[in-house]
Design brief:
Strand content of chain A: 15-25%
Order of helices and strands of chain A: HHHEEHEEEHHEHEHHEEHE
Low-confidence stretches of chain B: none
Strand order of the largest sheet of chain B: 2-1-4-3
Number of strands of chain B: 4
Mean pLDDT of chain A: 85
Radius of gyration of chain A: 37 Å
Shape of chain A: elongated
Low-confidence stretches of chain A: none
Oligomer: heterodimer
Number of domains of chain B: 2
Chain lengths: ~350, ~170
C-alpha cells in the first residue's frame, strides 16, 4: 500500500512538472510569435521604394516641363529659320514643331534637319534622365511624347507648348504609369520675326529679332516719346490689333489680342523706295502692303523730327491715324500724306 | 517520507518557476536582439523629402539668411536641394565647398539626431558629413538617392545630378 501511495504521489509530481513545462512552452510559443516577422514587415521598405519611384516620376515631369521651355525655344527657332530658307509660311507649323522637338528633323521625306536641334530635342534630354534613373536608381522606365500643341493664352511675348507625355515605370515592387500634359512657356524674344523674313511683297527689307520693350503701359498712356524709343531700339510692344507671333509664322495677318508690333525703319533705302502715301510703317501694315488706308484721312507723315528724324530722307515717317492717336502725337506735328 | 515529499514538491515548484522565468526572460530579451531599421529608414526618407519640399524662404537659419544677404542665394523659391545643386554647379567656377558644407550642416541640424552619422553626396562628391563612427564600422547604414536639377537660366538646365543621403548608426 505504501508503495502504491508513493508511486501515486510521485506521479502527481511528474504531472505537475509536465504541466509547468507545457505552460512554459505555451507561453514561449505565444509570445515568441512576436519575434517572427509579421506579414507586413517589408511594408516600410516597399513604401520607401515606392516613394523613390514616385519621386522619380515627379522629377521626370518637372524636368520635361523645364526642358520643354528650352527645347521648345530651339525648335521654334528652327521652324522660323526654315521659313527663312524655304520662303514659305507654315500654316501647320505645329506638326513641324513637334517633329523638331521629338526627332530633330523638320520633315520626314525628304528628311531634313531642324536647324539648331542637334542634341537639343526633348527626346534627347528625356532619354538622358531615363538613363540616369536606370543607372543610379535602378528604375526601368519608358516614355512617349503623345502630342505637342502650341497656343497663346498668357502673354504676347511667349507661347505655351502643351506636351502630352506618358511615363511608365516598371519595378519589382510596383508598376506605375502616368500621362500628364505639361505646359512649357516658350519665350519668343530673340527670335527672328517671320514677318520681316517673308512678307506678301516677297521683299526681305531686313531681318529683325523680336525684342520686347521695357515700357509697361496701358492703352491710352502711350506717348510720342515711347514711339521714339520703340523705333530707334527696334522694340516690340503688345498691341491688341496687331498680328501675333504664331500668326506671323502661319502667314495669317489677322488681328489678335496677343498681337505684337514694331515700327519699320524707314531709313533703309529699300523701304524708302517702296513707300507710298497709303503706307503706314507699322510692321504688319507696311510689310503686308496694306494700301487700303486713305492718304487723305487715315495716313499721316510725321513732320516733327524730334519724334522720328527724317531730315536726310526723301520720305518722312508715316503712320496711320489710329497709331498717331494711340501715341498721343499732336496733330500739329503731322500732316496727311496727300491733300485733296 | 512526508518530509522528503515536501522537499520534492518544493524543488519541483522551484524547477517549474525557473522554467517559466527562463522562458519569459528569453521572450522579452529576444525583442532587442535585432535592431529596428524602420526609424532610420523613415529618417532617411524624411530628410530627403525635407530637402526636396522645403523652399529656402521657408527655412529659418542664420547661415542661410547670411547667404541670402550676401547674394550667394539669389532665388529664395529654390528648394533646399535645388539650392545645393546650384551651389554644386557654380562650384566649378567658384569655390563653394565651404558654403555647401555649412549650408548642409545647418539644414541637417536638428533634423538628423546627433547620435546618428550622416553623409550627403552629389554625383559621388562629398558635400557634407558628420561621422560618429566610420561607415564601414556601422551597425546599420541606410541611404537614398534622388535626382535633382536646376534651371540656371532661360537656355540652360544643370543636371540631373544624383544626390545621395546616407545615415548610419
Amino acid at each position: 500500500m505504501d508503495l502504491i501511495r508513493k508511486l501515486t504521489r510521485n506521479k502527481k509530481a511528474v504531472v505537475f512538472t509536465i504541466l509547468s513545462i507545457v505552460i512554459a512552452v505555451f507561453f514561449t510559443v505565444v509570445f515568441s510569435a512576436r519575434i517572427e516577422k509579421p506579414l507586413d514587415h517589408n511594408t516600410v521598405v516597399v513604401e520607401s521604394r515606392i516613394n523613390v519611384l514616385r519621386g522619380y516620376m515627379d522629377n521626370f515631369f518637372d524636368y520635361a516641363l523645364d526642358m520643354g521651355s528650352i527645347t521648345g525655344y530651339a525648335a521654334l527657332n528652327g521652324v522660323v529659320y526654315d521659313i527663312n530658307s524655304t520662303c514659305c509660311y507654315k500654316p501647320n507649323f505645329e506638326i513641324e514643331l513637334e517633329r523638331c522637338l521629338k526627332t530633330g528633323n523638320i520633315s520626314v521625306s525628304p528628311p531634313k534637319k531642324c536647324y539648331g536641334m542637334e542634341n537639343m530635342t526633348l527626346t534627347y534630354y528625356l532619354d538622358g534622365i531615363r538613363t540616369i534613373a536606370l543607372d543610379e536608381l535602378n528604375i526601368i522606365s519608358s516614355y512617349s511624347i503623345n502630342s505637342v500643341n502650341v497656343t497663346q493664352t498668357i502673354d504676347a511675348f511667349s507661347v505655351e507648348m502643351l506636351v502630352n507625355i506618358t511615363l511608365d515605370i516598371r519595378d519589382n515592387y510596383a508598376n506605375m504609369s502616368d500621362t500628364r500634359v505639361i505646359t512649357s512657356v516658350v519665350p519668343i524674344e530673340g527670335m527672328l520675326d517671320p514677318l520681316y523674313i517673308l512678307n506678301p511683297l516677297n521683299v526681305n527689307y531686313y531681318n529683325q529679332t523680336i525684342k520686347k520693350t521695357n515700357l509697361k503701359k496701358r492703352e491710352g498712356d502711350w506717348t510720342w516719346q515711347d514711339l521714339t524709343q520703340l523705333y530707334y531700339n527696334n522694340e516690340y510692344r503688345n498691341f491688341k490689333n496687331a498680328t501675333s507671333f504664331i500668326n506671323r509664322i502661319k502667314g495669317n495677318f489677322s488681328q489678335n489680342i496677343f498681337g505684337i508690333e514694331s515700327f519699320v525703319n524707314h531709313s533703309r533705302p529699300a523701304v524708302q523706295a517702296d513707300m507710298i502715301d497709303n503706307h503706314s510703317l507699322v510692321d504688319y501694315l507696311f510689310l503686308t502692303n496694306t494700301t487700303n488706308l486713305s492718304c487723305m484721312r487715315e495716313v499721316v507723315r510725321i513732320l516733327n523730327y524730334t519724334i522720328i528724324n527724317s531730315s536726310t530722307l526723301a520720305n518722312p515717317y508715316q503712320l496711320d491715324e489710329y497709331h498717331r492717336q494711340s501715341f498721343n502725337i499732336s496733330s500739329i506735328d503731322v500732316e496727311f500724306t496727300c491733300i485733296p | 517520507m512526508n518530509k522528503r515529499g515536501a522537499y520534492f514538491f518544493v524543488i519541483d515548484a522551484l524547477i517549474a518557476a525557473s522554467i517559466i522565468t527562463m522562458s519569459l526572460i528569453i521572450i522579452f530579451t529576444s525583442h532587442n536582439l535585432r535592431p529596428d531599421t524602420n526609424p532610420t529608414l523613415r529618417l532617411v526618407e524624411d530628410y530627403s523629402d525635407f530637402l526636396i519640399t522645403t523652399k529656402v524662404r521657408e527655412f529659418q537659419g542664420a547661415y542661410v539668411q547670411s547667404l541670402i544677404d550676401n547674394g550667394n542665394i539669389t532665388d529664395r523659391d529654390n528648394s533646399l536641394l535645388q539650392q545645393l545643386t546650384e551651389f554644386y554647379f557654380y562650384n566649378k567656377t567658384r569655390n563653394n565647398t565651404q558654403i555647401m558644407w555649412n549650408f548642409t550642416e545647418e539644414i541637417s541640424h536638428g533634423l538628423v539626431p546627433q547620435q546618428r552619422s550622416v553623409m550627403l553626396l552629389i554625383n559621388d562628391t562629398l558635400i557634407y558629413t558628420r561621422q560618429l563612427t566610420l561607415p564601414n564600422q556601422s551597425n546599420l547604414m541606410l541611404s537614398t538617392k534622388k535626382l535633382s536639377f536646376k534651371k540656371i537660366n532661360d537656355s540652360y538646365i544643370y543636371g540631373p545630378v544624383v544626390v545621395e543621403v546616407m545615415i548610419w548608426i
